[in-house]
Design goal:
The protein has 103 residues and is an alpha+beta fold. It is 27% helix and 26% strand. It has a single domain, classed as 2-Layer Sandwich (Nucleotidyltransferase, domain 5). The two termini are 21 Å apart.
């Protein structure tokens, strides 16, 4: 990952933030669910990985902790969940508890 950052950024402790767009459906004619891992080092936003999938809700809930683990999620990270009914359902399933079991 070091090749993607400016020389003055080397040695900084990176904190990857996770974003979840929580649309859920297997219908590929509709919007997919999506996850993004990124960090902000002023003035630049670095995107580490973006993933999208057409999954039903239970599969989407299971995919988020796996994506988080792949992208170095830990106790310092923040998870941003899209503020739509789908996101509310995701939070209500206590997916954040599953995330905290990663580290």
């Amino acid at each position: 990952m070091g090749n993607y950052f400016n020389r003055e950024d080397k040695g900084k402790q990176l904190v990857w933030q996770l974003d979840a767009g929580t649309a859920y459906t297997k219908d590929q004619k509709k919007e997919p669910g999506a996850f993004m891992a990124s960090c902000y080092i002023e003035p630049t936003l670095y995107v580490r990985k973006v993933s999208e999938a057409w999954l039903e809700f239970p599969e989407l809930v299971m995919a988020l902790p796996e994506f988080a683990k792949e992208n170095e999620y830990n106790h310092r990270n923040m998870l941003h969940v899209e503020l739509k009914p789908y996101g509310k359902s995701m939070v209500q399933t206590k997916v954040t508890v599953a995330l905290h079991q990663i580290f």
